[in-house]
Amino acid sequence: AGVRASSIATSLPLGGAEQRELQIEGRPAVSPKDAPRVSVVRIGAGYFETLDLALVRGRGFTAQDGRPGSEVAVVNQRWVERFAAGVEPIGMRIRAVSEDAQAPPAPWVTVVGVAPTVRQSGTQGSPDPDPVVYLPFRLEPARFAFILARRQGQAAALAPTIRQEVRAVDEDQPVFRVRTLAESFAQARWPYRVFGGLLGIFAVIALLLSSVGIYAVTAYSVAQRAQEMGVRMALGATGPQLTWLVLRRATWQTGIGLVVGLGSGYGLSRVIKSILVQSTADDALTYVTVVGIFIVVTLVASVLPSRKATRLDPLVVLRAE
Q1: Where are the domains of the chain?
Q2: Does the reported pTM lie above 0.85?
């Protein structure tokens, strides 16, 4: 079937992971309540090759890892940044203790490799990727696991072959959720796409309503000042001078609104920053875009009515008032 690499894992990237208490040999012990937590994924040999991930340093797992005398682990770069900054991680002895009281005692394992950081548990609770400890699947076998396979060409074509091979080993073994990694990622992100799309629609509607409101208020303000503009024209004011007069007042009012709005928006974005995806509370592009739109609306709402007013005969304007 053209399979180039295959492996097994208890969880996929963005699919969540078991949270365990981390202990590092040689460092002071802390209470379970204060102990750091890490994500633990049990994987088979060839896991990183199957996902086409090159290790940063050290090595991955072999078929012998996980047997007595070969208790090893691989950590990701995020783990190194948090727990081994300035220290050589290869050779460190660590232990990932399960919170399940029925679980067997966690063995001490030796770090033999560092993998690139891959987001394991989505963005819930923290915008930063979580530190991950990869353990050999043989060290702690699980009842449930994902089979991973990589082939050249259409990956979806592997589904019938995988079902056939599993059925050849055990006819009663169910195989479900057969999908490509891209499909798994899409499913993990669908809540963000749905709610993000809805919020985006509401944001566009709010932006349109705000723009229409600014235009209407500014245009009405200019219309109300028609007599004033007629008097100024009668006294010798030119069209550009009157346009600048209107524009200056409208810009001042818009500026006050932008300061209040941007301040409130920035404060709100800091509150919801944990659920922002591919964006931050300090996203300059968003602020610049919003400011630019409102400035353009203000210019249009000020210049067009004022230019129309300056084309009128001052005597006609004064007589009408």
Answers
A1: 3-178, 189-320
A2: no
